[in-house]
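Good day; I would like, with your permission, to put a structural problem before you. A protein sequence and the structure tokens that stand for its backbone fold form the material at issue. Thank you for your consideration; the sequence and its tokens are set out here:
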Amino acid sequence: MTTLSDFRATLTDAAPASADPAVQGLWWAAKGVWDRAHECVQQHEGTPRCDWVHAYLHRVEGDEVNAAYWYRRAGRAPSSLPLAAEWDAIATELLGR
């Protein structure tokens, strides 16, 4: 298990350390590389973890309708948290598994 603090520390690296595509998507999102983040999770559609990050990415993009679709696919209610707080919540849960 990686802590949120440890995960944040890797954001200065050239690439994510995790092989988990959902975690990779969050990592790229934090670095502001939306297209790469989207690619990571889009390649694993149907995986609830990736679908959750996919929903978050569409919130970042400002596409609430598309985000709502991906929240449903992930089995989650749409988030009303500020984006930074949602990123923290997703990362904390994904890193804990």
Summary: The longest helix spans residues 48-61. Residues 56 and 67 are 7 Å apart (CA to CA). The mean pLDDT is 95. The chain is about 65% helix and 0% strand.
